[in-house]
Design goal:
The complex is a heterodimer. Chain A has 15 helices and 5 strands. Chain A is mainly α. Chain A folds into 2 domains: about 270 residues, ABC transporter involved in vitamin B12 uptake, BtuC (Orthogonal Bundle), CATH 1.10.3470; about 80 residues, Winged helix-like DNA-binding domain superfamily/Winged helix DNA-binding domain (Arc Repressor Mutant, subunit A). Chain B is of the alpha/beta class. Chain B starts with a strand and ends in a 5-residue tail after the last helix. Chain B is built from 8 helices and 9 strands. In chain B, the strands form 2 sheets. A 6-stranded mixed β-sheet of chain B has the order 5-6-7-3-8-9, sandwiched between helices. A 3-stranded antiparallel β-sheet of chain B has the order 2-1-4, with helices on one face. The chains are: A mainly alpha, B alpha/beta. The structure holds adenosine-5'-diphosphate and magnesium ion. Magnesium ion binds next to α1 of chain B.
Chain lengths: ~375, ~240
């Protein structure tokens, strides 16, 4: 079973490393289209070779993947319809054609639509090949090579990928072919999507490409950090997905996709400038401000000693709230209590002085 | 100051069937600070994009240093109009400025320590070195413009082409940018700048191209900056 986990992790890493640049270029939808339309390439190549294991299937898929990108851009250039609409047209047209061809002519062979679309990593170890005398799952071999190729691509073309994703016009002007970079990226995306099919299926492949990136993107502010953190989330998502899928007897890729969503949500809520942390910070700020206001009031001559009742009326706080505030201030040594009257300590007086500066109020 | 470093001959540019530039001729004098002035929609950005070969003209030619090839563009540092890049991109100020060095690296080669030093000194010129590790999304409009000028300086090009660099920025940044431009002129650089504020043209520029689809007047600022020429450009809107 450990082989299943390894396949899942390698698939996750090989896809998400390219996913970094897909997200940065707003190409998630194009990727989704590719991951479906390449089925047409697989089918056509299968008709030629009649062999479901032929490497020609990967080439066919890559060609249709690039064709998909080209057609989307072609329709975009007409300016007749919006980008997402042209993606939709190309996506559905090519994918439908593939499905028709399969159900009409390839029903008898093992081109099981269910498996291609939904994927099942559990089957991966069943289909093995010999590499240097070792028997390993074919998916692991293919995805392993692609992880190396994709990693090398990003490492070698890091600067070109960066500048053409950030400022394509500038990249063009200083002499880089943004079109070449884009098509290299999309070709690798197509090939990787085919290889990941077996493991994760066409529907969920998009999740593997972009989910770890979107999570990492919430936190980092540098491209190299984004890549490392993406890899970390890719491993985390697939490991947790594997454990959950294994123990609850669910689809592993489905579980991985769900984990990815949950982790994204958690990071979104708890990241340093995220929703929860901001709420907590706001509350603390309000509390500190209230403390300062109480101390400043007590620094005025006519309020040298006060009762909780006076304070609660002055600031329209409830009595228990006021009591809690005063108790905190007493513990922290800013006020002292004699029976039910409070007065400032020296420390409290100093604090009011700094508070005035902090909140930009004029000196007393 | 007599050589024409950029020449535009009989340029026509259209978006679909809508001509944005019509039989335009102009020349950029070497070592000048030249303003491109004209009303909204006059085709100023289109002219600049045509020079940068980002748009394919219907007809006409652009010569840069006597060449029409794409390589000649490397002699130009281009600062696009605001908002043309992805501001949420995970990259720091120093990173962006360093991109100016990429033009000297070509494919595959990485910038080195020397490039980093050049980038840092460009940041110092624009008084942005303290912000070098900031993500660009955390900058104000004026700071962003400073970063882009620093990137241009880092490129060490002979010609600077900028599209409304002073639009919507604070006065301190405006003064700093103008001061920097004037001192770069002393070093022999040439500037072509789209400018929107008619009140400061005479103070900032020594040459001007007044245009509205085609050139109304061009040349030395003393000769062309007349009420008559300005009126002509701003009254003829949409006349073609
Ligand atoms: N991408 C575009 N597609 C269609 N029309 C455009 C496009 N860009 C500019 N235009 C039109 O071309 C004309 C000139 O635009 P532009 O060069 O941006 O003017 P300026 O920079 O002087 O304000 C305007 O009428 C504008 O609406
Ligand atoms: Mg413009």
């Amino acid at each position: 079973m450990i082989e299943v986990l390894i396949v899942l992790i390698i698939a996750s890493l090989a896809t998400s490393i390219l996913g970094v640049f897909l997200v940065l270029r707003n190409q998630a939808m194009t990727t989704d289209a590719i991951s479906h339309t390449i089925l047409l390439g697989i089918v056509l190549a299968f008709f030629i070779t009649q062999d479901i294991r032929s490497p020609l299937l990967i080439i066919g898929a890559a060609l249709v993947g690039v064709l998909t990108v080209y057609l989307i851009q072609l329709i975009n250039q007409t300016d007749l319809i919006k980008n997402d609409a042209s993606i939709g047209i190309v996506f559905t047209a090519l994918f439908a054609l593939a499905v028709i061809l399969i159900s009409r002519y390839a029903d008898h062979v093992h081109l099981d639509i269910d498996v291609v679309i939904a994927g099942e990593v559990l089957f991966a170890p069943l289909n093995r090949i010999e590499v240097f005398g070792f028997s390993i799952p074919r998916a692991l071999w293919q995805l392993g090579i692609l992880l190396i190729v994709n990693g090398a691509f990003v490492a070698l073309f890091y600067k070109e990928l960066k500048v053409s994703s950030f400022d394509p016009k500038f990249a063009y002007v200083i002499g880089f072919s943004t079109t070449l970079i884009y098509y290299m990226l999309m070709t690798l995306v197509s090939i990787t999507a085919v290889a990941a099919f077996d493991a994760v299926g066409a529907i969920l492949v998009i999740n593997f490409f972009v989910a770890p990136v979107l999570t990492a993107y919430l936190i980092v502010k540098r491209l190299d950090h984004l890549i490392y953190l993406t890899a970390l989330f890719a491993v985390l998502n697939s490991t947790l997905g594997y454990l959950i899928g294994y123990n609850l007897d669910l689809s592993m890729s489905g579980a991985t996709a769900s984990v990815a969503f949950i982790i994204f949500t958690i990071v979104f809520l708890f990241k340093p400038d995220g929703y929860i942390v901001l709420k907590i910070k706001k509350r603390r700020q309000r509390k500190e401000f209230m403390h300062a206001m109480i101390l400043m009031l007590m620094n005025e001559d006519e309020h040298e000693t006060v009762t909780p009742g006076e304070i609660s009326r002055h600031f329209s706080l409830t009595e228990p709230e006021t009591k809690k505030q005063l108790e905190t201030l007493e513990v922290e040594g800013y006020v002292t209590r004699a029976e039910d009257r409070y007065r400032l300590t020296v420390r409290g007086e100093e604090f009011t002085h700094y508070s005035r500066i902090k909140y930009g109020l004029k000196a007393h | 100051m007599d050589k024409d470093i950029i020449k535009v001959n009989d340029l026509i540019v259209a978006y679909d069937d809508e001509p944005a530039i019509w039989h335009l001729n102009m020349a950029l004098k070497e070592n000048s600070i030249t303003a491109i002035v004209g009303p909204n929609g006059a085709g100023k950005s289109t002219l600049i994009k045509s020079i940068m070969q980002l748009i394919k003209p219907v007809s006409g030619e652009v010569w840069i240093n006597g060449s029409k090839s794409r390589k000649a563009l490397k002699e130009i540092a281009y600062v696009p109009q605001k908002g043309e890049v992805n501001w949420d991109f995970p990259t720091t100020v120093l990173d962006v400025v360093m991109m100016g060095r990429y033009v000297h690296k070509g494919w595959l080669k990485r910038p080195n320590k020397k490039d980093r030093e050049i980038a840092m000194s460009a940041l110092r010129v624009m008084k942005m070195e303290a912000f070098r590790n900031r993500q660009i999304s955390e900058l104000s409009g004026g700071q962003r413009q400073r970063v882009f000028l620093a990137r241009a300086i880092c490129q060490n090009a002979g010609i600077y082409i900028m599209d409304e660099p002073l639009q919507g920025i604070d006065i301190t940044t405006e003064k700093l940018i103008i001061k920097t431009i004037k001192s770069l002129q002393q070093e022999g650089k040439t500037f072509l700048i789209v400018h929107h504020n008619l009140d400061t043209v005479e103070e900032y520029f020594d040459h001007a191209v007044i245009m509205n689809k085609s050139v109304i007047a061009a040349g030395d600022i003393q000769d062309v900056w007349t009420k008559e020429n300005i009126d002509k450009a701003y009254m003829e809107m949409g006349a073609g």
